[in-house]
Design brief:
The complex is a heterodimer of chains A (412) and B (221). Chain A is mostly beta strands. Helices cover 5% and strands 49% of the residues of chain A. Chain A has two helices and 19 strands. In chain A, β12 and β13 form a beta hairpin. The chains are: A mainly beta (412), B mainly beta (221).
Chain lengths: 412, 221
């Protein structure tokens, strides 16, 4: 039933596409737009598995079409919808639909507040608005926003050795997972933050003077958003971001999120006296942006932990699973219409006891790093051509995987 | 008795200005009718904060005759670039005006009156330019050396868009809100009078301008 409703919603929203603006009802207005991305990879080590996302799609896929419908229902009410169509994915369109309602509570000279509800934008960090091909100077996303660790929301590792035995497997779609209980379905692990899918929840966004803020309550967590609705446990995630703009061109932000991430179905597999909602993801983030003349610089860092029921420090105490992710990115306009960009990102994993009784500490997953650099050229003001080279390195292997890609991104 | 240098200067100035202030000049006037078109101001999809983007009003602006430029083509003469720089102002996350006609060779100023950065660029015209990011109170400029349409955008705020129409001479006008326009001091002769609208393109009419008096021409988009 839900799929049918979503299907009708998609049809209703996008049927008039092709018209830039359409009158929908007295006082309302609808705007339709989109991006079409054509990409091709070549050279190096072939298919870039590290970029594959949960739904089986990939920013380097040959064809990706994103459609937007922004409906101004009333002066203060707007419905924002978008859908991604990627023939490489076998999952239904409902997995790619994002739609939320915004209500502008007030908008003054030096302060404003809006409320949003639905499948709402990631309330953490500063990358989400730049994750579109016409805003992203490169092709892929930063590692910390998509790379899969081995941990899952629907399974738990039986112990430290079980977790360590599967290091490096989280990115694989056929990852069978752990022996500690849970779903036998082969599936990816969880990323630190999964921006390609947003979460169902409510958000307050606004500003006061030189501060801007976002506060959200959502069904899932940053690592396991409930993008199809529903809830996997009884807890909610609380998240937010506070940013300070000392002067134009400089933004400094701090983010925080905390919420239970395990599925309720795991309750029977948990240690006695614990509940699913006791085990949380908690993440702190910092972001900075600097721009002047033809240069734009971005940097983000996130310190994350998951509480896992059966991971111990070797002395009988439960131990958190920590990750540290960060990236730096730069973009420089070389001449009108021509720019160069580079991004380097990394995820490092905290140490845990190796479970052999020797008290040896080892990272619970393999550290990974990803770099991408390239050039872009505006063929027109709405068509950008990009040539990038991406490299990926995991501590599991000695070498570096790399490949080239071209992407043409058209906005309409 | 004036010295030779001053006389030469006066002669050059006269040659440049004469066609525009000919004693045998008329007025081209008329009316432009446009369909009611909604020029969208897309509400910001993402909230990016007051000092970056996304705070612009969620309104729909009605386009109209003021989006049209009427100009006379084929007037012979050498026209010096205007000393005064036309302005395309960045304010409230939009370019003002939406359509700016300028004479060939003009230097256009792009002052930023918003609290946040803008980055004016154009990659559509023959004059590709990118003026970089600059803050409130600052301005950048660009000299336009080719006739035609220059599509101007802001790299930071994708909803911002404006058009500069570079025309070959000073004989152009933007209609008032009622659609009426008047182009004075057009030298006597037969010309093409063109009207251009960013959504509907060009229309043209052949017009004979009398030695004195008025030639009327109307356009409907």
């Amino acid at each position: 039933m839900r799929l049918r409703i979503i299907g009708w919603l998609v049809v209703a929203v996008f049927t008039p596409a092709g018209t830039a603006a359409a009158q929908t009802a007295p006082g309302s207005q609808a705007f339709f737009s989109g991006t079409l991305d054509l990409a091709h990879t070549f050279g190096g080590d072939g298919e870039p598995e590290v970029n594959r996302l949960i739904r089986g799609d990939n920013p380097f896929d040959n064809v990706r079409l994103r459609l937007f419908a922004d409906v101004v229902v009333h002066e203060r009410w707007t419905v924002f919808s978008q859908i991604l169509i990627d023939p490489s994915s076998s999952m239904g369109l409902e997995s790619f639909l994002r739609s939320y309602l915004r209500f502008d509570v007030f908008k003054k000279e030096k302060a404003d507040l809006s409320l949003q509800a639905g499948v709402v934008p990631t309330p953490f960090g500063a990358y989400s608005p730049r994750a579109y091909s016409d805003r992203n100077p490169l092709v892929s996303d930063p590692l910390m926003y998509h790379y899969f660790t081995t941990l899952r929301s629907n399974q738990i590792p039986a112990n430290n050795a079980d977790l360590l035995r599967h290091r490096g497997q989280g990115q694989a779609a056929d990852f069978t997972g752990f022996a500690g209980g849970g779903s036998p379905i082969k599936f990816n692990g969880m990323p630190m933050i999964y921006d390609p899918c947003w979460d169902v929840g409510v958000e307050a966004i606004g500003s006061a003077g030189r501060l801007e803020y976002t506060v959200a309550v959502s069904q899932g967590t940053l690592s396991a958003p409930r993008f199809k609705g529903g809830d996997n446990n009884h807890g909610k995630q609380v998240s937010g971001r506070l940013a300070f703009v000392p002067y134009a061109g400089v933004v400094i932000g701090a983010s925080y999120a905390r919420g239970p991430y395990l599925d309720s179905a795991l309750q029977a597999s948990l240690p006695a006296g614990t509940r699913v909602d006791d085990f949380k993801q908690e993440i702190y983030g910092f972001d900075a942006e600097f721009g002047v003349r033809h240069l734009a610089l971005y940097a983000e860092l996130a310190s994350n932990l998951w509480q896992s029921p059966k991971i111990s420090d070797g002395q009988g105490h439960r131990q958190d699973l920590k990750t540290l992710g960060w990236y730096v990115e730069g973009r420089y306009t070389l001449r009108p219409g021509l720019f160069a960009a580079v991004r380097y990102g990394r995820i490092g994993y905290g140490d845990i006891d190796d479970g052999t009784g020797t008290r040896r500490k080892v990272p619970w997953n393999y550290d990974v790093s990803l770099w991408e650099y390239g050039i872009g050229y505006y063929l027109t003001d709405r068509i950008i051509g990009k040539l990038v080279r991406q490299g990926y390195r995991s501590k599991e292997e000695s070498g570096t995987e790399h490949f080239f890609a071209v992407q043409v991104s058209a906005s309409f | 008795m004036p010295d030779r240098g001053n006389a030469l200067t006066a002669a050059v100035l006269a040659a440049a200005i004469l066609p525009a202030v000919s004693l045998f000049a008329g007025i081209v006037n008329g009316t432009v009718l446009t369909k009611p078109t909604a020029r969208q101001k897309v509400p910001p999809r993402y909230y990016l904060g007051p000092y970056r983007a996304g705070r612009g009003p969620s309104v729909v602006e009605e386009g109209g005759p003021r989006d049209v430029v009427v100009f006379v083509e084929g007037v012979k003469g050498v026209f010096s670039s205007p000393a005064r720089h036309p302005q395309l102002v960045q304010k409230d996350e939009r370019f003002i005006p939406h359509v700016l006609p300028v004479q060939l060779g003009s230097t256009v100023d792009f002052p930023n009156e918003d609290d946040f950065y803008h980055n004016v660029f154009s990659v559509v015209s023959g004059d590709r330019f990118d003026l970089g990011r600059y803050a409130k109170g600052k301005s950048a400029h660009q000299t336009l050396t080719k006739t035609g349409v220059v599509v101007v955008r802001c790299e930071i705020h994708s909803g911002m868009k404006a058009y500069i129409l570079v025309v070959p001479n000073p004989f152009f006008a933007v209609p008032g809100a009622d659609g009426a326009f008047s182009i004075p001091d057009v030298p006597e002769g037969t010309y093409l009078v063109k009207a251009w609208h960013p959504d509907y393109g060009y229309q043209e009419r052949s017009v004979t301008v009398p030695a004195s008096g008025t030639a009327s021409v109307n356009f409907t988009f």
